[in-house]
Sequence to fold (310 residues):
Amino acid sequence: MLAVGLSLLQGERKAPCDMYRKVGDEDYILFAQKGLPLSVDLCANLAEHAVKTLYIAPEESEDYYSYLRSFTEQVVKDPHIDSEHKAKAVYSSCREILHHVFDDPRASFINMAIDMIAPTMDLIVTDDLATRCLIKLTDYDQSTYTHSTNVGIFGIALARHYFGADAIKDLHSLGAGFFLHDLGKCRTPIEIITKPGPLTPEERTIINKHPEDGYNILLENGVMTEEFKYLTLQHHERDDGGGYPYGLKGKDIHPYARICRVVDIYEALTAERPYHRRISTFETLKLMKEKLVVDMEQGVFEHFVKLFLS
Fold:
């Protein structure tokens, strides 16, 4: 069975496929039958039993995620739904599809993720209140897909702020790249990603391959774009040449990658990780300004700080 989140349980919706609850280690019971309403009573039943995950048959995954994408788009376009609820809907939907993409990075699911991210970009470029809600919603756990969701949201918001209204039309080709920047980590052994202590030189070499791995995954699946190339390959490059994988310097680093690096650093420092405790937004921004973001990235960083002042 395939685990799915509770993104669709935000109103009176119909189940896109049979959905199950897990009981015990390997047993499942039917929670909602395909085509029947996901009622308030059913949602209350989940809350009563502290259930945070449902399950579907793997062969129904494409139907499920197509339905989730349609639901997200409808929520964003509905003038009767407030900004806070729209933000919650797009955040949970993006996080859910990225979870699936990192588990199964094939073309059909990558393209589905790109499609599902589009309503999020629409919301960020048209609704400032929803953007502020999204920034507050970011969840700080150690999973790569949650990290990538947060970087995606911060990246689009910062790009809009940095490039201005004239660049809004370009965000649709750019935005999904922020969400997929770390896709190569799905080829990194989980014991390295979740290791509670410092990495050995050999482990560091392996994890430093994830930008090229991400680039190769997108290329192999026929979804590569110029924007995706810059964001996957360059988001760990540094002006002093001390970054990876190529040791690029100065103007050789694309502005898109600079934006991604700033939000990537912020998210990593404010997340709960096996190897460090998260620190507050204020402490993180102070540390970044004093020690981590230098030279040409200062301009990007100043725009980033402004996202927290509105």
The CA atoms of residues 132 and 309 lie 10 Å apart.
